[in-house]
Amino acid sequence: MKLVLLSGGSGKRLWPLSNDARSKQFLKVLENERGEMESMVQRVWGQIKGAGLADSTVIATSKVQVEILQNQLGGVPIIVEPERRDTFPAIALAASYLYGQGVSLDETVCILPVDPYVDDRFFDRIRDLEKALHHSGAKMALMGVNPTYPSSKYGYIVPEASDNAGGYQKVGRFTEKPSEERAERLIEQGALWNCGVFAFKLGYMMDTLLREGMPIQYEELLSRYASLEKISFDYAVVEKEPHIAVIPYDGYWKDLGTWNTLTENMGLRHIGNGSISDDSSNTHLINELDIPVTIIGISDAIVAVSPDGILVSDKAASPRVKDMIEGGQRPMYEERRWGWYRVLDYSKFGDGTEVLTKRIGLGAGRNLGYRKHIHRTDTWTIISGEGILVKEGSITPVKAGDVVTIEPGTYHCLKAFRDMEYIEVQKGEIVQEEDFEEMFSSWNDIERHCVGSGAQAAASGRSAL
């Protein structure tokens, strides 16, 4: 069996902590058994490893989330969508990738979201999807959650009235987000919550692509990705397929998609700098800034503070935040494969010059890409840590207190020996994240490029520290 985790989301429902670059699955607000804070995707990946499924799993995501995935999970296999085009194109791309890797057409492929909040038995149950496909003769097998209450927030899978022979049932129909009254009637009929988990044989998806006139070769599909219809897999495939089996899951499952549901599973009343009075019952604080936040006499509320903004909301009303925030706002905090950055200030002057100031954290042993900027000058002031600067092939040690200027057109990168923080001031007529041309991202490639500089051997030895 091959697992494909779908990682997407626009980050609106958990604003201001989430944004286009840091969706809900990347928020480190859950406490693990060691008392450490972890994100939903870190929790799920740990469960997948515990179930012995990590070697069979790939993550499909858009390119804006690649670096944060690498930052939080390390070197996991990732299929990169050139742009977001909903779940059907993403699954089609993942299937063509597996096909191009020589995976058998008879191999079972299981699709699931990257952020379910479940117990470990959930991943043991996923293995049973393969058995359900085999024994039922169905084209697709779904996993549904036994409902614990009549919710209007979820879709429902309604099985046909029949015995649950072999541990599966035939799917009769789907109902999307019914009223609570109708949901109660559906539950009486044996309906299950649709948790977005389904499996099929790889050959089934290849046949679907051919039938839709889409290429099955990965590189060709990748080149045509921008022209694919934006449509969900549910609408494009699942609801049109008459032969579907479903297996029930009776363990813990929750969608932590709103502040209300997320805080129910946080474990901690507050994260970050601040305090909550004892008479503020069922109130949570998450503060990513250094300034303290104090909450007094306010119950049933969420207070979330980040570089992107501040939210103070009654928990029941908090889902309305997605309708109130402005679209297209630039993320003020991002995690990258090498560390993180926080925007401190942005100014635009009368002559058209822009100045953007960031505080950047570079993890020990990690490096920036070897790149040049076209339109801007960067000035770095090292605050803490030590490492080496590579500038046009020359390697120089840097430490706290050093100031470095990078002119436009100058290839450069930075590697940290110990955790490093520095202030970066970008100045130019155009200040954009996309203003770069990268030659190398791997440190080994950068080092090879610097052979003959006279400092490479010293840098190689120091990098082991």
Commentary on this structure:
- This is Mannose-1-phosphate guanylyltransferase.
- GO terms for molecular function: nucleotidyltransferase activity.
- InterPro entries: Man6P_isomerase-2_C (IPR001538), Mannose-6P_isomerase_type2 (IPR051161), NTP_transferase_dom (IPR005835), Nucleotide-diphossugar_trans (IPR029044), RmlC-like_jellyroll (IPR014710), RmlC_Cupin_sf (IPR011051).
- Pfam families: MannoseP_isomer, NTP_transferase.
- With 465 residues, this protein is an alpha+beta fold.
- It has three domains: 2-254, Spore Coat Polysaccharide Biosynthesis Protein SpsA, Chain A; 267-324, no CATH class; 338-462, Jelly Rolls (Sandwich), CATH 2.60.120.
- Helices cover 22% and strands 34% of the residues.
- A six-stranded antiparallel sheet has the order 20-21-22-29-24-27. Strands 8-11-9-10-12 form a five-stranded mixed β-barrel. The chain has a four-stranded mixed sheet with strand order 14-16-18-19.
- Helix 3 crosses helix 6.
- The radius of gyration is 25 Å and the shape is globular.
- Residues 452-465 have low confidence and may be disordered.
Features:
alpha+beta, globular, 465 residues, Spore Coat Polysaccharide Biosynthesis Protein SpsA, Chain A, 5-stranded mixed barrel, Jelly Rolls
* Percent helix: 10-25%
Rg over C-alpha atoms, rounded to the nearest angstrom: 25 Å
Q: Tell me the name of the CATH homologous superfamily of the largest domain.
A: Spore Coat Polysaccharide Biosynthesis Protein SpsA, Chain A
Distance between the termini: 40 Å
InterPro entries: Man6P_isomerase-2_C, Mannose-6P_isomerase_type2, NTP_transferase_dom, Nucleotide-diphossugar_trans, RmlC-like_jellyroll, RmlC_Cupin_sf
Keywords: Nucleotidyltransferase, Transferase
GO molecular function: nucleotidyltransferase activity
Domain Mannose-6-phosphate isomerase type II C-terminal: 336-437
